[in-house]
UniProtKB/TrEMBL annotation:
Annotated GO CC locations: plasma membrane
VTT domain location: 8-125
Location, primary (coarse class): membrane
One Pfam family, short name: VTT_dom
Protein name as annotated: VTT domain-containing protein
Topology term for the membrane: Multi-pass membrane protein
Subcellular location: Cell membrane
Stated family: Belongs to the DedA family.
Transmembrane segments: 113-132, 144-165
Key words of the record: Cell membrane, Membrane, Transmembrane, Transmembrane helix
Length: 181
């Protein structure tokens, strides 16, 4: 569903499903399998939308500007549809929709798309289900642990966001020209 309505919190649903394997009697492998099949269906829908939106002719991406270091090589690699793009973008909020749509639009072969999307969906669902399960098991019967885990997670996400913003700002900045006297 989040393939068409991006505000649907699928990661939260996977975490909750994983936690319910501890509290609610759900089966962890079944929860992971259902989550993986659901996101794979959404990925395939985005792929098909891109494929039919492009018409008959394949669309080629055109590189722009000069790339810098590792970030530049990664960016160039993500412009071309392929297994690495599909796998990496699965874990980026909103990235999977763009990657799957781009793969369909560029006529990336479905025989290559489905295995990569399947592996990405399985990895994503396993990650979400296991984190929810382990978090639910660790927090059973202890309210203060839940508060500590939430605070550490919030601090970790804030630190990761700050680091990403600083690296991006550094890569995008150009040295200022200083006048020569």
């Amino acid at each position: 569903m989040d393939a068409f309505v991006p505000v649907v919190p699928t990661q939260l649903l996977m975490l909750t499903g994983g936690a319910l394997t501890v509290y609610g009697g759900l089966n962890l492998p079944t929860t992971v399998a259902v989550g993986a099949l659901g996101v794979l269906a959404g990925d395939l829908a985005c792929y098909l939308l891109g494929r039919y939106a492009s018409g008959r002719r394949p669309v080629r991406s055109v590189g722009t500007g000069r790339a810098r270091g590792i970030a530049g090589r990664l960016t160039r690699g993500l412009r071309r549809p392929g297994p690495m793009m599909i796998l990496l973008c699965r874990f980026v909020p909103g990235g999977r929709m763009a990657a799957c749509f781009a793969a369909g639009r560029s006529r990336y072969p479905v025989r290559h798309f489905l295995p990569a999307a399947g592996i990405a969906a399985g990895g994503w669902a396993s990650y979400g289900g296991l984190v929810g399960h382990l978090g639910g098991a660790a927090l059973t019967g202890s309210g203060w642990r839940m508060v500590v885990v939430a605070a550490v997670a919030a601090a970790g996400f804030a630190l990761a966001g700050w680091a990403l913003a600083s690296v991006t700002a550094r890569l995008n900045s150009t040295p200022a020209e200083t006048p020569v006297d």
